[in-house]
Write a structure and sequence with these properties.
This protein has about 290 residues and is an alpha+beta fold. Helices cover about 15% and strands about 30% of the residues. It has 2 domains: about 55 residues, no CATH class; about 230 residues, Jelly Rolls. A hairpin with a 4-residue loop joins strand 7 and strand 8. Helix 2 runs antiparallel to helix 3. The chain starts with a helix and ends with a helix.
Length: about 290
């Protein structure tokens, strides 16, 4: 039995061919097809079957500063290139990028993308995990992900160093690479580095507290970043990208000189709201067709 038969039952099976039924079926089928690509441009979660708890999701120990290393990283979800390692840390103190499986009570999913600096949080030691979209973000698009500082029962707390996410274009070096950065340190609020300097949100970095981050690309090289404590308050920081005339395509999660754990999950990119109007229009057409029948 075809998808159309399953969707519309006996009417389709009995071969009713009047124009109204045919139009309704075609419109519904089109809506189903478009809905599969409109709601998310890209998505990945550490609970994807490709990721196994305790294992590295990207290669570590790459050459310092190598911007193209570790192309053999794992690749779950859709709409992203493989996980890639950057150049943080010196060759003796690379950190780790492993799949973790914290308790579901931390609201970070059954598994998470974990990052940890080299032993002891030594200066210049760190870890990074880079993900590049297959297609860059345009004006009106959003990128989102969940972040959590370790501690409070979720691994070890970071008492030194910083962790966060660097938002980049498709360029591998400056000028033109860096767009903005999200920075976390214990004892401070989550903050954003953008053109004109650093601006703090009102959301504190709290051990074991999930924070959802949404980057919205605005016109004129402007953006909004909203931090939302899971189940709690939100705070939005606005600014202008460091590099102008570029498109956001890469997010690089990092920890640097830390002595604890840092977790990431729920990576997504969503088209502009105007694209979603397509489904609304199709739904209205279907409703009218049904009423006319």
């Amino acid at each position: 039995m075809s998808l159309i038969d399953q969707m519309f039952g006996q009417n389709a099976i009995e071969g009713k061919k009047d124009m109204k039924s045919t139009m309704k079926l075609a419109t519904m089928a089109l809506a189903v097809s478009i809905s599969s690509v409109v709601f998310a441009q890209a998505y990945d979660t550490a609970s994807d079957p490709v990721y196994v708890a305790g294992q590295e999701y990207i290669q570590v120990g790459t050459t310092l500063g190598d911007q193209t290393a570790a192309t053999n990283g794992l690749n779950g979800g859709y709409g992203w290139n493989r996980w890639q390692r950057g150049g943080y840390g010196d060759n003796n103190n690379f950190g780790s990028t492993k799949i973790t499986n914290l308790s579901s009570s931390f609201n970070m999913g059954a598994q998470q993308f974990g990052l940890r600096s080299g032993v002891g949080g030594l200066d210049y030691s760190g870890a990074d995990a880079r993900r590049r979209l297959l297609n860059p973000l345009n004006v009106g698009n959003t990128m989102s992900f969940s972040l959590m500082a370790g501690g409070g029962g979720a691994g070890d707390i970071n008492t030194v160093g910083e962790f966060g996410a660097e938002i980049r274009s498709s360029q591998l070096s400056n000028p033109g690479r860096d767009m903005c950065s999200i920075i976390g340190e214990m004892g401070r609020n989550w903050r954003v580095y953008r053109d004109g300097g650093t601006m703090e949100s009102t959301i504190p970095v709290t051990a074991g507290q999930r924070v959802d981050v949404t980057l919205s690309v605005l016109a004129g090289d402007m953006f909004d970043i909203t931090f939302t404590a899971f189940g709690g308050a939100s705070s939005t920081v606005s600014g202008k990208f460091l590099s102008t005339g570029q498109h956001v395509q890469t997010v690089q999660f990092y920890c640097y000189g830390t002595d604890g754990d840092y977790y990431v999950n729920n990576l997504a990119a969503v088209p502009e709201p105007s694209s979603l109007l397509v489904l609304g229009a199709l739904g209205a057409i279907v409703a009218r067709r049904r009423k006319s029948n």
